Amino acid sequence: MPGTGQVRWGIIGTARIARKAFVPAVAAAGGVVSAVAGRDLARASEYAAEIGIGRAVQGYQTLIDDPDLDALYIPLPNALHAEWTIKALRAGRAVLCEKPLCGTLAETEQVLAVARESGTPLWEAFVFPFHQQMAKIRGLLADGAIGDLREIQSNFHFVLDRRDDFRLRRGMDGGALNDVGCYPVRLAVELFTGDLESAWATAELGGYGVDVDLQGSVGYSGHQRLTVSCSFLRSDDRFARLLGTAGQIHITDPFHPGPDDSFTLFEAGKEARGYSSTDEVPSFTAAIRHIQQVVRGEEEPRNLAVDNSLPTARALDALRQAAARDQMGDGQPDGEETD
Q: Is there a catalytic annotation at residue 20?
């Protein structure tokens, strides 16, 4: 443990998301990215030099075994998450793994079993629960501002036009649902109290055998429902609407709120009230700050994968199966029987 010193991070892989979001967040949170590992040392060295990482090493296991690191970030393609997260956990490394935790339900269950067995802290990189916007929305729901929460309608769309992107490859567990549809699903896990009961979905296939556009719904006990739309074919959209028995909350961006984002409360019989989503700490920085405090022994862990990744994975699996049934011509919602 580094005590009160800087938490030293290692990155397994040379992903764009690490360059764009993770490395700046670590710097803002007072940590340091000490090393990056790649399969090709020349490429890893170039990556390290471009974004100011201290050193590059060849091979993911080499980084896991490095005694001068305190925590690891794993932004590999989805199909590689389970293997390298398990190896990192068994080595006693605190891990932040990119979302989804794994590309399949079975692998998620395997990883979580190792996390429980090892007692090593593991986080799935949904960082929006660390943002103050979520705390404010939770407060409104707890106060009964919209009555009982019944439905979440949520989109996550963007245009993916790089034909060589691993997210377009079935063998890498790609697809719009795994890449961005997981966000609305996780939002439902955060806010709903019921258990998963049913699922329906339809998808358009593209790339190399993945869903590039999917819409569907997940039913939960207690009359709760998630309606989700995710796509690689539509312009940027991360809007969500929370529907209750006495009002609604509209959120311009529940997942990556920026300075221009907001949410609006519509209460029955009252004037609409707007709230700024601005927080002095961006969500990724807030998440990294928390993890570093846990590693230093200064704070109890929150939002661990063992607490909330399994219901997320189960809902994603239900939607995948529903979409597959729809492709075969059987669109019957899961959990319902035909006559």
A: no
Kindly state the tokens that stand for 337.
């029987």
Count other C-beta atoms under 10 Å from residue 1's C-beta.
9
DSSP element (H, E) containing 244: strand 240-244
> Is the whole-model pTM more than 0.90?
yes
Structure tokens at 36: 């990056």
Q: Fold for domain 8-127+285-301?
A: Rossmann fold (3.40.50)
- The Cα–Cα gap between 319 and 203 comes to 10
Q: Would you call 195 helix, strand, or coil by DSSP?
A: coil
Catalytic, out of 20, 87, 99, 270: 99
d(CA 62, CA 292): 22
CATH code assigned to 128-280+315-327: 3.30.360.10
Note the pLDDT tens digit of each residue in 141-170: 999 999 999 999 999 999 999 999 999 999
* Domain residue ranges of the chain, discontinuous segments joined by +: 8-127+285-301, 128-280+315-327
pLDDT digits (tens, 9 = 90+) for 88-141: 999 999 999 999 999 999 999 999 999 999 999 999 999 999 999 999 999 999
Compute φ and ψ for 51, nearest 5 degrees: -115, 15
